[in-house]
Design a protein that fits this description.
Layout lengths: L1 E3 L2 E10 L2 E10 L6 E6 L7 H12 L3 E5 L10 H9 L3 H16 L6 E7 L1 H8 L8 E5 L17 E6 L7 H13 L4 E6 L17 H19 L9
Parallel strand pairs: 4-5, 4-6, 6-7, 7-8, 8-9
Antiparallel strand pairs: 1-2, 2-3, 3-5
Length: 238
Amino acid sequence: MTSIPSITAKRITFAAGDNQVEGYLARPAAGETSAAVLVVHEWWGLNRHIEEVAERYAAAGFIAAAPDLYHGKTTRDASEAGRLMSGLDQASALAGLKTVVAHLRAVDGVEAVGITGFCMGGTFALLLPCQTKMEASVPFYGDVPEDTSFLANLSCPLLFIGGEKDEWITVAKMERLEAALSQHQKPGEVRIYKDAPQAFFNDTRLEVYREADARDAWQRALDFFDLHLRNGQSAVKE
C-alpha cells in the first residue's frame, strides 16, 4: 500500500454484484469527493506509469480507478504488448469496465464518473460512454473505428487528445471523429498537438515524451473533469 501526504493508493478488487475486476485505486487521503475517474491502461498493461497517473488524479481530488485488463500481466516489449492487446476480448473488457463504473457509483458521495485512457485505453475511453452512462470522457490517442455510428449513443461530453505525427491514430482518423461528433450533435472537442507522436504523454518513454504538450494536455484533462464531474469546483492544479 502506498501512502503519501495527499492520497492513499492500493491494489483492490472492484466488485459489482457477482462481477469482479482487479485493479488499482487511488483517492484523496482526507475529505470527501463527489467525482471518480477510470484510468485505462495502454497495451503495456497496468504498469507503474498508469498507477502514477491514477495517483495524480487522486492528488487533484478525484477517486481514480485503474482496472487491470490483462489480469496481472505487463510488458515492455512491443511484440508481447501487441499479442496481449490482440488477445483481449473487447466485449469482455468493456463488461469489466462497466463493473468498475458500477463499483464507483456505489461509493458513498460519488455523484459523477468519468473515464480517460491511453492508446488501447483511449479506445475504451471512446467506446465505453457509448454503452453506459458516464459524465465525461478524455481519450488520449485511442483508435477511431471506421464505422462511427456508435457515437450516436455517446452519453457525455468528450475531449479527445491526439498527436499530429501519430502514425496509428492519424489526423484523418481524428478528423473522422470530429465529423461524427458534429453529425450526431454530440458535445466534443478533438485537440491535436502539432508534431506530437503517439504516446507523447508517457513520461517513461523518453523517445516519444513531449513535456510541454503533456503538461498542457494534463491541465486540459483536469479542467475538463473539473467542469463536468464537479460542476467547476476548483481542482488542485499541478
